[in-house]
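Hi Y.,

Following your request, here is the sequence exactly as I used it, all 95 residues.
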Amino acid sequence: MNDHSLEQEIFDAIVERMELAEVIAELPPEKLAFDTPLFESMDPDGIALDSVDSLELVVLLQEKYGIEVEDEEMSRLVSVEKIAAFVTEKKAGGV
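Below is the corresponding structure, written out as tokens. Let me know if you'd prefer a different format.
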């Protein structure tokens, strides 16, 4: 799987798991790039996930990719692009 398809897979999983279809539909196209910040604290006009969503994201990554996310690693999960890189590193045993 190339990086772009992993990013798309992660994006789709986040949208489905967190029921964000309506939110995504209302965003301008430039807010849907894989490097767009996911969390409200970083971009209140974007996808705007909150701290509860961050825990759901960790569960999603654990279930979908079989990886553990340590507390100190959560700060890396800021965009789909960064999450894809994190997943790739974890799967390769590099993190």
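The chain has a mean pLDDT of 90.

Thanks again,
Q.
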